[in-house]
Amino acid sequence: MEKIRVAIIGIGNCASSLIQGIYYYKDKKPEEAIGLMHWEIGGYKPSDIEVVAAFDIDARKVGMDVTEAIYAPPNCTTVFCPDINPSGVKVEMGCVLDGVAPHMAEYPDNHTFVISKESEKSKEDIVKILQDTGAEILLNYLPVGSEKAARFYAECALDAGCAYINCMPVFIVSDPEWSARFEEKGIPMIGDDIKAQIGATITHRTLANLFRERGVKLERTYQLNTGGNTDFLNMLNRSRLDSKKESKTEAVQSVLGERMDDDNIHIGPSDYVPWQKDNKLCFLRMEGKTFGDVPMNIELRLSVEDSPNSAGCVIDAIRCGKLALERGIGGYLTSISAYTMKHPPEQFTDDVAVEMVDEFIDGERER
Ligand SMILES: NC(=O)c1ccc[n+]([C@@H]2O[C@H](COP(=O)([O-])OP(=O)(O)OC[C@H]3O[C@@H](n4cnc5c(N)ncnc54)[C@H](O)[C@@H]3O)[C@@H](O)[C@H]2O)c1
Question: What residue range is the signal peptide (predicted)?
Fold first, then answer.
């Protein structure tokens, strides 16, 4: 199989888990590979993905081989694949824009971003690197609230002719104007805001769907999340949070038969607890009414390592992006976006989305 050539923006915890996974599954056989939703997609295995370019702005990552930068601070996710040979791909300095929130400067270096003194790249520089390295897919892992930076790199993808996978909640793939531009150029896109394999969103959606299917009226719910990685530190700045809250809340609202009143649904990142590192805790409560208007409730506590959990979805999104490139499909991919993203252009329940993805992989569905 030829390789899937990927460029990554933001070599944080999510990129670390993804890259570790590409190497981790290399020597595995399908029957012993734990943690994948698909071993092969269109003939592509996880190890057929190759990172050919990488961009960051952190002094401890820029200039390093990407296979070393993934372990550099402030990354703190579990190391499940410690021995990776250097790939020869250096992390390039990107363009900071609004990627680093002002409050990040108030925290110790080992917990926060440290901006490199290297000069920032222009759009032309980045497009050239993408073209010179033959990158086919650009993966966006910027911090929440990087509205300008996310759009800047999406412009780079458009100019370089790269497919765009948007793993964070700046609404680009789900924005009709942006998706029309990608469709016009015949470039596929998948987004926005990656879901986890089994995380707070899919658990909450599944339970909400269960309430609906079993005729139980969901009256009030909350989902409070805490974590100790830079994603949670960044999200302490409430002004950066609007799109994350919208993305997470709509993911649940969209599977309810009847929308809940905004006052009765509260979902979002709730606090930063440094010692939790990349372990995310979700505290979920759902209050409903069953037969005869009789009240019931569910309390659930979920504990997951955040970044490998997202990589389990991205590893499929990348391979579906490659299939779309081979098939000449431009614009957003409905099925894999609905399956792997919290805020896709079109929402479906997860059991419908998984069928749509399998149809897409088998070539029975265009997108
Ligand atoms: N972990 C999950 O399960 C999960 C789920 C859904 C969405 N996400 C989203 O994915 C994104 C990445 O998450 P993460 O945990 O890897 O975050 P992270 O904080 O570990 O990594 C972000 C990286 O981006 C770099 N960066 C900042 N500004 C930049 C710029 N202008 N150009 C290039 N690089 C820049 C930082 O130096 C850092 O290396 C976040 O927006 C997060 O909300 C994560």
Answer: none
